[in-house]
Amino acid sequence: MGDFEKCQICKEFDFLSTHKCAPEWEVVYPENGDPEDSGTYYKAFGIDEEDALDKLCHNEYSDWDYPEEFELWIRKPVWGSWLKFDIYVQSVPEFRFTKKE
């Protein structure tokens, strides 16, 4: 089956001998409200727009102060139409309980 490693293309951990990257997407954090004009561009991978944005946000924006709200645009590379998403980041506390003897 091979080694469980990080794919150098999509950055997902998987068994590389059987791994297939999810579809590629272009994502932009627009500075002037126009994704064609300026901004920070990213390459993301996911089965759909929301999956790709979820993975990108966990990797790129997880260290921001919370709560945070921003806009990202996404499309299939080059030929796709831009879709606009409002992103809201919120820190949610997690509790774990361990019974003591």
Description:
By secondary structure, this protein is mainly beta. It has one domain. Helices cover 12% and strands 33% of the residues. The chain has 1 helix and 6 strands, in the order E-E-E-E-H-E-E. The chain has a 4-stranded antiparallel sheet with strand order 4-3-5-6, with helices on one face. A two-stranded antiparallel ribbon has the order 1-2. It is flat. The mean pLDDT is 86.
Which terms summarize this structure?
single chain; 101 residues; mainly beta; two-stranded antiparallel ribbon; 6 strands; flat
Break the fold down into its secondary structure elements and pairings.
Elements: E1 4-6, E2 13-15, E3 24-29, E4 40-45, H1 49-60, E5 68-75, E6 83-89
Query: Largest beta sheet, briefly?
Result: 4 strands, antiparallel
Helical content, roughly? 10-25%
- The number of domains: 1
Silhouette: flat
The rounded distance between the terminal residues' Cα atoms is 42 Å
Strand arrangement, largest sheet? 4-3-5-6
Number of DSSP helical runs: 1
- Describe the oligomeric state of these chains in a short phrase: single chain
Count of distinct strands: 6
Instruction: Return the string of H and E elements.
Output: EEEEHEE
Question: What number is the mean pLDDT?
Answer: 86
Share of residues in strands = 25-35%
Helix- and strand-based class?
Answer: mainly beta
Radius of gyration in whole Å, from Cα? Answer: 17 Å
Low-pLDDT residue spans: none
